[in-house]
Amino acid sequence: MKQNNMLAMILAGGRGTRLHELTKKMAKPAVSYGGKYRIIDFPLSNCANSGIDVVGVLTQYESIQLNSYVAAGRRWGLDAKNSGVYVLPPREKADANLDVYRGTADAISQNIDFIDSFSPEYLLILSGDHIYKMNYAKMLAYHKEHNADATIAVIEVPMREASRFGIMNTDETSRIVEFEEKPEKPKSNLASMGIYIFEWKLLRKMLMTDMKDPDSSHDFGKDIIPALIDDGKNVFAYKYKGYWKDVGTIDSLWEANMDLLDKNNELDLNDPTWKIYTEDVTTLPHYVGPKADINRAFITQGCVIDGEVKNSVLFTESKVAEGARVIDSVLMPGAVVEEGAVVQRALVADGIRIGKNAVVGSADSEHIELVAKRVKGEE
Amino acid sequence: MNQAFGIVNFAGNHIQVDGLQDYRPVGAFSFLGRYRVIDFPISNMSNSGIDTIQVYIRRKPRSLTEHLGTGRHYNINSKRGRLHILYTESNMVSDLYNTDIAAYIENLDVIERVPYPYVVIVPSYMVYTADYSNLLQTHIDSGADITLMYHSVDNAKEKYLSCYTLDINRQKGVDSIQPNRGNAKNKNIFMDTYVMKKDLFLDLIHKAHKMSAMYSLVDIVDEACQELDVRAVPHRGYFASITDFRSYYDANMSLIDLKNAQNLFVNDWPIYTRTNDSCPTQYFDGSHVTSSVVSNGCLVEGTIENSVIGRGCVIKEGAVVKNCVISSDVVIGKGVHAENLVVDKHARLVRGKRVIAPPEKPGYIKRGDAL
Question: Degrees (nearest 5) of the Cα angle B322, B163, B364?
Fold first, then answer.
């Protein structure tokens, strides 16, 4: 907290239903990405690299894995004195009924006491399911420079896709004059990234009011941000340039993994000045056998490859046996492709085994096939 | 195993690994890409339930202390356990006097203060997995004064030449400890691994110190074979002694075969190391990789054959790496052909188009060298 007087809260309660079986037993922020990471490693590492010491993680849906994962703040270097990652699921309080988080704003409202205990000047709100690298310290500097009451990070999206996002309309000083959630006819292409910096005192007041409002959906995008703008507060847009992905579907999760195969991909996980930290697993380096054929691939430790791997991302301890072919695919941690099996345009879920000579996915499918159950092969 | 503490001993004067050892002690050598040699003894101890571990360093401490840190990555209980890094005093007239006994004398009070009755002493320069809690139990059950561990080999004539051997009698008793003179194929190679009572250990230290300023632990234990009950326990599984340049190269190469590696990396026996937070390795169009072990954080465009590649290496377009052991952060430039080499950290092979050593005598590229 000493570093910049800003506390971060990560909204990690989302279920991510469009990821189907991947999020059946696990919250979306805990889903694996990029060979060795989980999605929530990104906001957590960004916080650590931006000099933020205290991070609250608001969990709700299937949170056992996520809770234990993020509680080990040491992984991201968030374990110095007065530093830490706090797991904040809904809890019973003396003067209120036990309630689930009814919306993103409510999740913060229910933890006002937690935030107050650090008495921060600024509060940073983040989403736990986006993949990007961002220096929040720069955003805070921008916020201060503009004397803003709130600052919202925005990214330019293609105009034709703008109607899928919350769109910010700004004046020439980047002050936000209007916010439209998924507008049919967007006036700009500045999409909200769900990253907000607030003056804590002001937000606190607004949340107190919002909690009592029976008509509110207790959501930042729907309630808090529009109210701020309507009140004529100084809300500024902070333009972010770089890689940013919300992996809401199997297709987009696959695509975000495929992005890593490009030689000069924008995310650049190899940047020594902005490392993404994750769980330290004890496995061997990856083993490449005598029959292996690897071309355009992203492969992490613990993998064993003796077959063909093309245009694919292999996660920790996944295996490709001799004569097997993995093409345009993602193998999640511990996935096994046995001898002679073919995996094409597919995403094989954690620990799933594709049996001998089995075939999953196809080269010309419209969507990526999610393989979440064992595929029996020839005995 | 709350009965024993561990000592990780350094390589004595008789051990010389040309090249690599100029920069760091053997324990800090990069091994199989992501490990350091010392990860094996410390992980063995940690997995055996030993949580008080003393690591002795004789010279060039930087890279080893950096790697060991607080020892948390070895899964040692952070409150009850402790990884202790201890030094010898180097202001000696000659390096010859800088023995392990001198180091123990220097740190006598630290050893005396450890509350456990037994000590397990292991080398920082040998690679194997072993459960020391079993070894200790065998030792206690047998009633022996000292128990040593050995590995039987059938190639002692040309290998293990800087190692000691055990003369074992029919009752599994040790008659003497002798240097391997390379005069016989079949030998019991001493794994420089001991178990004994702490009190006996302290006695031996004092005795050795009085006897000769150049004595090391192995000398005094050899002498003790005459009057004490010294026994030997065989070790099975993978064993490598990193005691000269060739053995370092061979040990790395032998583990490229997954079946061999599975003799060392056994189930439920994790080998811990310090994480570097490097991202996965990226293979680009044109890469061609077979029979190799590759660490994270590499960028591969060229060909890798039968090699071990450390973290964060760059193998550029058209480059060929064959039968090499490459440490971390090495660059093999466009079209460069590297064969039969050990390439030390941060080296860059960018200009010389062909850097090839004869297979019977692998070459060494110095740390940070640009070629």
Answer: 25
Whether the Cβ atoms of residue B262 and residue B181 lie closer than 8 Å to each other: no
Q: B287 and A294: CB-CB below 8 Å?
A: yes
| Token pair for A165 | 């996002």
List Cβ neighbours of A117 (8 Å cut-off, separation of 6 or more).
Answer: none
The whole-angstrom distance between B257's CA and the closest CA on chain A is: 8
Low-confidence ranges of chain A (pLDDT < 70): 1-3
Share of chain B above pLDDT 90, in %: 88
Touching B: A residues 296-355, CB under 8 Å: 296-301, 304, 313-314
Residue type, B244: D
Secondary element (H or E) of residue A337: strand A336-337
Best of A36, A76, A278, A287 to mutate (most B CBs within 10 Å, chain B): A287
How close A310 comes to chain B (CA, Å)? 9
C-alpha closest to that of B51 among B31, B69, B16, B78 = B78
Structure tokens at B208: 């050795």
Chain A residues inside the 8 Å CB shell of B252:
none
The upper half-sphere exposure of residue B21, i.e. CA atoms within 13 Å in the direction of its Cβ, equals: 20
* CB atoms inside a 10 Å sphere around CB B350: 16
Question: CB distance A290–B299 less than 8 Å?
Answer: no
Of A34, A284, A293, the CB nearest to B265: A284
A36 touches chain B (CB under 8 A): yes
Q: What does pTM read for this prediction?
A: 0.94
Predicted pLDDT at A82: 82
Q: Do B292 and A288 touch (CB under 8 A)?
A: yes
Look at the block and give the residue holding tokens 């000696």.
B92
Q: How far is B50 from chain A (nearest CA, A)?
A: 19
Q: Is A35 on the interface with B (CB under 8 A)?
A: yes
Give per-residue pLDDT as tens, B184-204.
999 999 999 999 999 999 999
The number of C-beta contacts closer than 8 angstroms across A and B is 101
Which chain B residues have a beta carbon less than 8 Å from that of A35? 279-280
**What whole-number distance in Å separates Cα of residue B31 and Cα of residue B327?**
8
- The string of DSSP letters for B83-122 reads EEEEE-----S-GGG--HHHHHHHTHHHHHH---SEEEEE
Task: Compute φ and ψ for A82, nearest 5 degrees.
Answer: 60, 20
Name which of B292, B104, B278 is nearest A286 in CA terms.
Answer: B292
- Cα B232 from Cα B234, distance rounded (Å): 7
Using an 8 Å CB-CB cutoff, list chain A residues near B294. Answer: 285-286, 288, 299
- Secondary structure of A73-84 as H, E, C letters: HHHHCCCCCCCE
Inform me whether the C-beta atom of residue A243 falls under 8 Å from chain B C-beta atoms: no
Partners of residue A313 in chain B, C-beta under 8 Å: 280
Q: What is the pLDDT of residues B76-126, one digit of tens each?
A: 887 788 999 998 876 556 777 889 999 999 999 999 999 999 999 999 999
The closest alpha carbon to A218, from A89, A98, A59, A106, belongs to A106
Q: How far is CA B356 from CA B181, B329, B353, in A?
A: 32, 20, 10
In chain B the first and final C-alpha atoms are separated, in Å, by 50
User: What is the average pLDDT score of chain B?
Assistant: 94
pLDDT at B245: 96
